[in-house]
Write a structure and sequence with these properties.
alpha+beta, 2 domains, two-stranded antiparallel sheet, 17 helices, 15 strands
Length: 494
């Protein structure tokens, strides 16, 4: 064992997995990197690069930057996958495994992958070449009780591996850490510059790499196929504004979204008939674009069928929370309130939900549980037991005083949406409400299967607008924000 932490870092450094600390403008305007590495002031906002300290202070240090980011070079990490007999053969699995027409068990079975191979035959001819996916999301390292600080890690994953390996934690490479405390928003591209420059070089030139299983050298090239992110990060990566009436990156200007008269929010009510156009994800229309994304620097980016993917888990989580909080009538989170009822009179004809002029109150909606039903549901959830590792301890997420769920992770919502929803509300809701929710639950379960069939996805693509129309006959127009609209396009993406 090493004597101290410093010696341990020196030992690990010899493994050849370095990290680069790159100074950046405190306002996120630029990086002090490459040709700008010697600048002492930001060339856009003129903010000084280093902190100013009085020489009389006890903690005086020179050249302390206001802000810095961390970049983990990707090349060495990819080369190490071929340097080990344990992983070198698996890195060629995408080209050597058996393909079955119409069945997708891996990205290499999908239309997008095959289209990329046809468009770039010289790249596809070498089975050693690496295909990557990229994702990013913000998190608070100090938790909910600490100070507000938003840090953004950027992770890439090699899709050469078989499906049981490519999503393992050890093969998800952290490449960039964008520091806080503020959200980088539209300036995320600035921090991606080192990674994009390296990926562009690896596409155009490549790097000599040794394959331990074949016992020979080869020139490894790398391509980024797509990004996968939640909806806010989708805007940051793609440059497409995910707000207002043009929030949907597929429907764009063709959307029939409208502003609610009383609620004042955008609604996608009766707007689920739009079909997705092939290659629409990469078409450069003017409406809705905030900026030119840095990913367009790749010479192959314009030929990709899917540049940016919607994160199914994030969409599923938001749809579930909207449904559950509305049915449980959770204060501050329900989509059902006085304004939504007033909007209901303008866009729908449901006299049973109109306000009683004598009492001034609104009747109970068919999808809202009474207090007794809430208690029964919460107690049932609190006593549920699951196999170890299947889901979090859901009993800890139950607030029996306020009769609501809290602290649910994406995977918890995923399990509830697909496995518990149709059981939990079967005896608590009217049959036609429960049936509509069951169809939505089955949609997400089939969409996230380990094996997808093209015919099944085409069928889901036709069924999901009908499912959402059934929900429109139950919930108010305020319920249908952009998240309730996005499932229309998920089967097409799959």
């Amino acid at each position: 064992m090493t004597e101290n932490f410093y010696c341990a870092k020196k030992l690990v450094q010899a493994l050849g997995l370095p990290v680069e600390k790159i100074h950046c403008c405190t306002n996120g305007c630029m990086l002090y990197w490459d040709e700008d590495s010697e600048l002492t002031n930001c060339k856009f906002c003129d903010h000084p690069r280093f902190k100013q300290h009085s020489r009389g202070s006890s903690n005086f240090q020179t050249n302390v930057p206001h802000k810095k980011m961390y970049y983990f070079p990707l090349t060495q990490r990819l080369q190490r996958l071929y340097a080990s007999n344990a992983t070198a053969k698996e890195m060629r699995w995408h080209a050597e495994h058996d393909h079955k027409d119409g069945v997708m068990r891996h990205c290499s079975d999908a239309t997008t992958w095959k289209h990329f191979n046809k468009t770039h035959p010289s790249f596809a001819a070498e089975v050693w070449n690496v295909r990557l996916g990229l994702c990013t999301d913000g998190f608070q390292p100090f938790g909910q009780s600490g100070q507000q600080y938003s840090s953004w890690p950027v992770i890439v994953t090699p899709y050469n591996f078989p499906p049981w390996l490519c999503m393992k934690e050890e093969y998800m490479f952290l490449t960039i850490i964008v520091p806080g405390p503020r959200n980088p928003k539209d300036k995320l591209d600035v921090h991606l510059r080192p990674l994009i420059a390296k990926l562009k070089q690896l596409w155009e030139v490549g790097v000599e790499t040794y394959d331990a299983s074949k016992k020979n050298n080869f020139n490894m090239r790398v391509a980024l196929l797509w990004t996968i992110s939640d909806f806010p990060a989708y805007s940051m990566l793609s440059g497409w504004s995910t707000k207002s009436k043009t929030a949907c990156p597929y429907c764009r200007g063709d959307s029939d979204a409208f502003t609610l008269t009383k609620g004042g929010k955008q609604s996608w009510f009766d707007n689920h008939h739009m079909g997705a156009d092939e290659n629409n994800n990469c078409k450069a229309k003017n409406t809705g674009w905030k900026r030119w994304s840095i990913f367009w620097d790749f010479p192959y980016w314009s030929t990709n069928m899917l540049c940016h993917n919607l994160d199914v888990m994030h969409t599923e989580k938001n749809v579930f929370e909207n449904i559950f909080n509305t049915m449980m009538n959770v204060e501050g989170k329900t989509k059902d309130n006085a304004k939504s009822m007033e909007d209901l009179k303008e866009f729908c004809h449901r006299p049973v939900l109109e306000r009683d002029m004598a009492t001034g109150k609104y009747p109970k909606a068919c999808y809202t549980l009474d207090k007794q039903s809430k208690v029964v549901l919460c107690e049932w959830l609190k006593n549920l037991r699951f196999p170890d590792g299947y889901v979090s301890n859901m009993g800890r997420c139950i607030d029996m005083q306020k009769l609501k769920l809290f602290g649910m992770k994406s995977h918890d919502c995923h399990v509830f949406m697909q496995r518990l929803l149709l059981i939990a509300f079967r005896e608590l809701l009217p049959k036609y409400v429960w049936q509509a929710l069951t169809k939505l639950s089955n949609f997400f379960r089939e969409l996230t299967s380990t094996t997808l069939r093209v015919e099944a996805m085409l069928q889901l693509n036709e069924e999901i607008p009908i499912i959402l129309c059934k929900l429109e006959r139950i919930f108010t127009p305020s319920f249908f924000d952009s998240m309730e609209h996005l499932p229309v396009h998920l089967a097409f993406e799959a």
